[in-house]
Design brief:
- By secondary structure, the protein is an all-alpha fold.
- It has nine helices and no strands.
- Helix 5 runs antiparallel to helix 6, helix 5 packs parallel to helix 7 and helix 7 crosses helix 8.
Length: about 200
């Protein structure tokens, strides 16, 4: 007689399968919601290659799925900044890397460019909390090194640069600029604000 425990799926295999399903669902949601912010759970399930029941097994509601996607996005952005060499590259290059990471992040998560982004939940590890201090520290380093003008507070410049990038994002969202144009203008404006050398 066959012991039913011998044919059962091992717990490690179940966890691995669940992780693959979750990753597939989040990847599908990232793309689908970027194109169609009002997409349904069924739409996301089809793109992920799983059943709607599987999506609901991992995410009990659409809001829960969006919240998980935003958490994943925040973690990814934090990793981008960690890899950008912000504390070691020449300050102007580090500023370019910082802003470039933001644009790559938005390109990967286009749902955040949509007009409905204001209704997207804030994650626990919110980029609005951890990114500004990183930028402020970068600017301070540039000011101490003589690459940036020290006459304005670094905290003020960091806040203005974030506002500048938000404005650039809005210009892209409304079709006034392409992402490439907005990225170039944002970097040029940020360097001028900091008193760094222009790149045009």
């Amino acid at each position: 007689m066959v012991d039913p425990h011998d044919t059962a799926t091992p717990p490690r295999r179940r966890r691995s399968d669940a992780r693959r399903s979750i990753d597939a669902i989040l990847n599908a949601a990232r793309g689908v919601l970027g194109e169609r912010p009002d997409a349904s759970m069924e739409d996301i399930a089809v793109t992920a290659g799983v059943t709607r029941q599987t999506v609901y097994a991992h995410f009990p509601s659409r809001d829960a799925l969006v919240a998980a996607l935003v958490e994943a996005a925040a973690a990814e952005f934090a990793a981008m900044l960690d890899d950008a060499g912000l504390d070691t590259a020449p300050p102007a290059d580090a500023l370019a890397q910082f802003l470039g990471a933001g644009w790559r992040f938005l390109d990967r998560y286009p749902m955040l460019l949509n007009a409905t982004a204001a209704r997207i939940p804030r994650p626990d590890n919110d980029p609005h909390d951890f990114a500004p201090p990183r930028l402020e520290r970068l600017i301070q380093r540039g000011q101490h090194a003589g690459d940036f003008d020290p006459s304005l507070p670094a905290a003020w410049l960091a806040a203005v640069i974030f506002g500048l990038q938000h404005t650039a994002v809005a210009q892209v969202a409304t079709g006034r600029l392409t992402a490439h144009e907005a990225e170039a203008l944002c970097l040029e404006s940020a360097l001028r604000l900091c008193g760094g050398e222009a790149r045009c």
